[in-house]
Every structure is written in C-alpha cells, then in structure tokens.
Amino acid sequence: MSLLEKLNSPNDIKNMSIAELYELCEDLRSFLISNVSNTGGHLASNLGTVEITVALHNVFDTGIDRLIFDVGHQCYTHKILTGRKEVFSTLRKKDGISGFPNPAESDHDAFLAGHASTSVSAAIGMARARTALNKDYSVIALIGDGALTGGLAYEGLSDAGHSEEPLIIILNDNEMSITENVGGLAMHLSRLRVRPYYLSLKQVYRKTVAKIPVIGKAIDKFMRKIKTAIKKAVLPSSMFENMGFNYLGPADGHNIKEVCKLLKIAKGMSKPTIIHLKTTKGKGYKFAEDAPEIFHGVSGFDVKNGKPNEIASISFASEFGNTLMELAVENDRICAISAAMQSGTGLDEFASAFEERFFDVGIAEGHAVTMAGGLSKQGMIPICAIYSSFSQRAYDMIFHDVCLPNLHVIFAIDRAGLVGDDGQTHQGIYDVGMFLQMPNMRVFCPSGISEMKYMFKFATENMNTPVAIRYPRGGGDVYSSKDISLEPKLLRTGGEIAIVTYGRLIENAMKAAEILESDGISISVIKLTEISNLSYERLSDCLSGIRRIFVVEECVAGGSVASVLALTLRENDTSISVNAINLGSAVVPHATAEELMELFELDAKGIANRVLSATEKQTKTLKLIG
At a CB cut-off of 8 Å and minimum separation 6, what does 283 contact? Predict the structure, then answer.
C-alpha cells in the first residue's frame, strides 16, 4: 500500500520523515496524472507544486492557518491531502469537486479563487482580521510569477510590504503563466536567481570570521559596513526587500527539506516575508515538462504518449485566428493583443507570422485594453482577444479608455456563455450586461463560425467604433446560414408567440419550435445578430403579428437582452409581452456545457417546456378572467 493510500488526514504528513515526504510526492504525481488523464483539468501547474504543497501541510494546519491560492488551478494536491482523495475522480464533473479552491467545499479552502493576482490582497486582509480579532494563525499566499504580471498583485504587495503584518507570500517561480512569461518582472526574477551563489559566499564568510579569536567581531563589524556595496555589486537589489518584505531565496521548490526549513523560518518572523521558490511546471511527467503550455489545461489524454483522447474539431478560437491572419495580410494596421492566452484564443500562428504586430502583455487584461486604446488612437486597428470571464477584470478600462473616447478597438470575446468544467469563476455569463452598458459599443453574437468570420471582416473594414464579438468555447452544434445579415432576422414564421435569441442558442430555439409545433403551438423564431442598438424600428418587421416573446439567453437576468427589449417595447407602447428564459441570478457550478444547458432549461426540450408552461398558465388565467 502506498503512503498516499495510508494517508487519512493532513496531520499524518507532520510525522513523516523527509524520505517519506519524497515518497508521498511520487505517489501524488502518479495519482494526479492517472486521474487528470480521465477527468481533464490543470495538470502541469499541479505537478510543479507538489513538493511545495506537501511542505506546507508539513509545517502548517490549513484547517486553522489560512492558505490562499492565487488563480487556484494548482490546488489539486491540496484537495487530495485534505479529505477529497476518494472523490477526486469527480473533479470538474457535475455534482463533483471543483477544479479551484472553494470554501463551500471544505474548511481547508480559505478563499474562492479562479482569476489571477488576487492572493496577496486577500492574504493581507486575513492577516489584518487576525490582528483585529486577536487570533493566532498563520496566513500564507501562494502566487506564481505569471500572476505577478497582474496589477492587483502589486497593489497587494505595496500594502502588505509596509503593513508590518506577519504573513508569508510564496512566489512559485516556474517562468510560466500559461505560455512563457513576458515583461520586466520575468527579467528581474531571472537576475534574482543568482542569489544562491551570493548567499553561499555569505555563509562561508560568517563561519570563517567567527573562528578568528579576539579580532573576529571587529572584522565582522567592519565587513558589515561594506556588505551593502558588495551586495549591490554581486546581486541586483531585490524589489521585494525594497517594498518592506523579508526575502528568502531563491531556493529549489522541489527540495522538500529546504522548503520546509524556509517555511519554518518564515513562520517565526514578525513581518511580511516572501519565499522565492524555483520550480518546473509539469515536473515528473515528461510530456508536461516538454510542453507545459499544452498541459496547462487538458481534456482526457493517454498517459503513455500524452496524446489527447479526442482530437479537437474546428473551433471558434482556431477560426478566429485564421480569419485574423487573412485580414492582417491585407491590412498592415491590424494587430492582436493577448493577456497570456495566446494559444487559448487561437493566436499562435498570428504571433509567429506577425511578430511585430502581436503583443502578449501577460495576465494584465486592464493594461491590454488601455494599450489597445492607445494603439487605436494612433491609427492601428487592435483586436483584443480576452475570455469573457476575464474581460470583467477590465471593466473600467473598456469604459473609460475605449468606449468614452469612441476608439476603434475590436474585442474578441472568447468563451462567451456557459463554459462548463471550470465552474463558477469561468462562466462567460456576465459580459452581456457589461457591454450593453458601454457607450458607443456595438455587440455582435455569431451563431456559427462562418458568421463570426464575416463579423470580424466587417468590423475591421466598415466600422470605426468599439466592437465586441462574442462567441462560445469550441465549435459544437451551432446554427449556420449562407445568408448572413447583421440585422434581426425572422428565421421561422409561426403564430403570435416568438422565441428571440442569439448566438449558439439559435439551434436550440429552432428545435424547441419544432417540439412545440408537434404539441400544436405555432412558434416564430427571431434571430438577433447584434444585441446592441435594439431599437423598435430595427425589430418591427420581425415583430409583426407577435403578441408575446420569449427571450432565451446564456446570461444572468441583470443586464440581459430581455430587460432591454422589455423596456424598448414598453416605451413604444406595444402590447407585446416579454418573458425571459435565462440564468436568473444563479451562480453556475461546474459541469459540461450540455449538462448546464439542460439544468437551466436552455436546451431545446427545456425551452419548449418553459414556453408551454407559460402559455398554459396564461390560458388558464384568461379562462378565469373570462
């Protein structure tokens, strides 16, 4: 029986020898690779933090001490060690455990996480709460060097450094975010990696001087006066020390003995401390070590050769990348911006072909947007590719730096709508309301890949305002039409009831209309390609003879198209009633997109049932009134 199988509690780790801790790490790696090959998930980042996580549980009690993961996708080992080993096969599945820390799931998960750069701010908040309430526990934030490209991390560091609150920040330095890190911080950390040589020299000096009788102390005092000059000559000044932190490292993050030692030292310090640990992303699995960007987030794969079980079909992201390539050949003003999501947004080939027109800014969505504004103001046509859930992080910049000055920036909003397995922090269900609030913003929602390609071409060649083009993850069963129009379109003519929808839900709406037809209810279907500028004049032709509409959407109720249409129709004194079929105010859990569609009645059957239920209720009400 392996050590992992014998493990009943994280407290068992505290009694293990160093040799046993290493053995446990090997067991954990095998367990991770075996399970994630079936469930999919974030593999490379978890393999790279096994020793750090084991060391943390050796030194601290996460049921009392507060361990905050930045981003959180590297929390798998922590979950396995804190009572979720037996249910780990349910990772990211419906009703299973989340792929990110979730306090609702376990007391050992100190803080909800899913987006980058948040851990230091949360940690200083918890440390201050501890002091204010006179409690006794340690606070530890685990943050990767990729997350340090986000501005919020520096706001937290700036405050924490001068706070004098005892807390520990572990910098997991693997030189990667998802793709290779970029920017000045990466260069700074690279220079800091010479520090072990300096520290070794320092230790030798102290041992030697201490042995000199009588004059040893005098020599030491003299040498301390010139230590700063030597340090500056050998080692660049540490940014973290200048901010007020004790700085320990860099050290090998896979050396458990060393990591445990540093954690114990930091635990005893009375001021903010940073431990800088160098790790290898994908450690222990050759395919993940060789291609950590591919194994950052994976679907099921064959452990023996690292190849995916299913080859991805054509997708919105890949076709977005192809379209941008074609447009960039024709127009040298087109450029692309990524916030550390080059591969995920389909920009790999563009980055290679147009290196001088591709900008990866790291995990810094706000900066990406404002930089796009600057590029546009000076004559470029920037396409800013961001996942829907991450666009929330740049709300003010989209509003203030692009929309108010009415700059021609095109936002490629990937992962719009229900995303699925990554759960509540990654669902793309909030951007509809966000973008509809923005002045001058045009918002388009293609129902198929050919329509998306047309929209990007139209937006680059025929528009001069801010534009957001929203599309879902993957490709999937979506509605396609040869007759592409940006105007509202009546796809199916029925009776006095119409389903109004957009994006990939067109397909579900058409199928729902067929189901209802078989029940004797004739339904019209109206397709919206643009969800902004929904004036009554634009809609009137499609609404002729309609008395009731059901607006079906993959978004929350607040700021939905349904609410916009309800107001528009009321202001124009129409008698058309509006029903909303959307996600309401729900926090959407992890499951496949298909399972979530069924759960929230956005699949064909669910839409048909909602319409049928509402019409039957209305008929009964009318009979009672009559």
Answer: 29, 47, 48, 50, 254, 289
Tell whether the torsion through CA atoms of 395, 434, 73 and 161 is positive or negative: positive
Q: For residue 450, count CB atoms less than 10 angstroms from its CB and return exposed for 0-12, middle for 13-18, buried for 19 or more.
A: middle
In this structure, the chain runs to a length of 626
Residues labelled catalytic: 281, 365, 393
The number of beta carbons lying within 10 Å of the beta carbon of residue 517 is: 15
* C-beta separation of 170 from 74 below 8 A: no
Q: Which residue's structure tokens are 């095998």?
A: 30
Q: Which long-range contacts (CB under 8 A, 24 or more apart) does 238-244 make?
A: 238/192, 239/188, 240/157, 240/161, 240/274, 240/276, 243/157, 243/158, 243/161, 243/162, 244/161, 244/162, 244/163, 244/164, 244/271, 244/272
Write out the H or E segment, with its range, that includes residue 257: helix 256-267
Reduced to 3 states (helix: H, G, I; strand: E, B; else coil), residue 290 is helix
Token pair belonging to 66: 């507060």
Helical segments of 276-401, H only? 286-290, 316-330, 348-353, 365-377, 388-391, 395-397
* Alpha carbons 68 and 141: distance in angstroms, whole number: 5
518 burial class (0-12, 13-18, 19+ CB within 10 angstroms)?
exposed
Tokens of 624: 């009672």
Phi, psi of 216 (to 5 degrees): -60, -45
Q: Please answer whether residues 471 and 316 qualify as being in contact, where contact means their C-beta atoms are separated by less than 8 angstroms.
A: yes
CB atoms closer than 10 angstroms to residue 476: 15
122-125: Cβ within 8 A, 24+ apart: 122/68, 123/66, 123/68, 123/156, 123/160, 123/167, 123/169, 124/156, 124/159, 124/160, 124/163, 124/165, 124/167
Radius of gyration of the chain (CA): 28
CA pair distance 156, 166, nearest whole angstrom: 14
In the predicted model, residues of the chain with pLDDT beneath 70 are 176-211, 214, 216-237, 312, 476-478, 481, 617-626
Per-residue model confidence (pLDDT) at position 229: 53
The DSSP bridge partners found for residue 251 are 277
Q: What is the pLDDT of residue 623?
A: 44
CB count within 10 Å of CB 134 equals 6
CA distances from 493 to 488, 504, 513, 603, 616 (A): 14, 20, 10, 21, 21
Q: What is the pLDDT of residue 241?
A: 86
DSSP 162-212: HH----EEEEEE-SBSSSB--SHHHHHHHHHTTHHHHHHHHHHHHHHHHTS
CB atoms within 10 A of CB 157: 24
Q: Going by C-beta distance under 8 Å and a sequence separation of 6 or more, which residues neighbour residue 389?
A: 114, 115, 415, 419, 425, 426, 427, 428, 430
Report how far residue 256's alpha carbon sits from residue 54's, in angstroms, rounded to the nearest whole number.
8
What per-residue confidence (pLDDT) applies to 477? 53
Q: What is the Cα–Cα distance from 56 to 259, expressed in whole angstroms?
A: 9
Between the alpha carbon of residue 207 and those of residues 183, 202, 233, 261, 463, the distances in Å are 39, 9, 22, 20, 71
Distance CA 412, CA 346 (A): 11
Whole-angstrom Cα distance, residue 79 to residue 99?
Answer: 9
68, 122 in Cβ contact below 8 A? yes
**Rounded Cα–Cα distance for residues 385 and 468 (Å):** 10
Q: Which two tokens stand for residue 374?
A: 């600057």
